[in-house]
Design a protein that fits this description.
Number of domains: 2
Order of helices and strands: EEEHEEHEHHHEHEHEEHHHH
Oligomer: single chain
Number of strands: 10
Radius of gyration: 20 Å
Shape: globular
Strand content: 15-25%
Number of helices: 11
């Protein structure tokens, strides 16, 4: 069994006393190399675990450990945030410099890296996200997807084990969403553990495992095929099913003999190909 990277154990978190729990008795484990989606409608509590995993918030009760470190230990906060980097929803809120390379260097400066070692680390991080040619550009002149890739590079430069994405594509257009998500898929293939908070079903369908939040509670966990097998249950949680899953369901109800478990465009194409007569 692969190494445990994050453990959330019976965690409760309340933003205000008497205001109810944003997270209520949640337990989950994320292992090295996982690509885990956390789904939920607005107000479901899905973003709060991300901030708990990064040490931005402390549990009201229960515990969160990251790479074996308890987030309640203030002396470990910076090391936890180095090992588990976080990319937020609005790319404009994450960029602090007037040149891309300076922005990527910002985190390295905060952890006290020797300036002589920074150029190679910055160049490598920009290469990893396909942004080397934009190294001398002003971030405010980039597209939304490019800005998020620069934000990811800033995290990568610190050599994290985990990257937590808190609705990182929510403010992007479809092209920007595809651009960022494909970058994250490749980083996961190269060994980065990914926690992907989203409300886009087509993104969750491409993750390896899904946790579904509703009313602050963790109500479903499983692979994408397990989670989306019961479209009615998903809709009762006020969520959509992936577009290809909905299309496959409709086609099957109209007599098209597609295989079960279609979630992505690629799977739909393969399913249709199998139905086509051989020439």
């Amino acid at each position: 069994m692969s190494e445990e990277m994050i453990r959330v154990e019976n965690v409760t978190y309340a933003y205000d006393e008497g205001g109810g729990n944003a997270v209520d008795g949640v337990s989950l484990t994320i292992r090295r190399g996982d690509f885990v989606a956390v789904l939920g409608q607005n107000g479901s509590g899905k973003s709060t675990p991300a901030k708990l995993m990064n040490g931005l918030y402390q549990p009201t009760s229960g515990s969160v450990t990251v790479c074996g470190m308890d987030t309640a230990d203030d002396s470990l906060t910076w090391e936890i945030r180095r090992r588990a980097g976080m990319v937020f929803q609005n790319p404009d809120n994450q960029l602090v410099a007037t040149v891309v390379t300076d922005d990527v260097a910002f985190g390295l400066e905060n952890i006290g890296m020797d300036p002589a070692l920074m150029p190679a680390r910055i160049d490598g991080a920009l290469k990893d996200v396909g942004m080397q040619e934009f190294a001398s550009r002003a971030p405010h002149l980039l597209s939304g997807g490019q800005k998020q890739r620069v934000a990811i590079a800033g995290i990568l430069a610190m050599k994290p084990d985990i990257i937590i994405f808190d609705e990182a594509t929510a403010m992007l257009d479809p092209a920007g969403r595809r651009e960022v998500f494909s970058t994250v898929e490749r980083l996961n293939e190269e060994g980065i553990t990914v926690v992907w908070i989203t409300h886009f079903m087509e993104e969750a369908a491409k993750c390896r495992y899904i946790h579904v939040m509703h009313g602050g509670k963790l109500v479903l966990s499983g692979t994408p095929k397990e989670i989306f097998a019961d479209a009615g249950r998903i809709r009762r949680l006020r969520l959509d099913v992936p577009p290809m899953a909905a299309l496959a369901q409709e086609l099957k109800q109209n007599g098209v003999a597609l295989p079960d478990g279609i979630l992505t465009v690629e799977e739909m194409v393969e399913g249709v190909k199998r139905l086509a007569p051989r020439v």
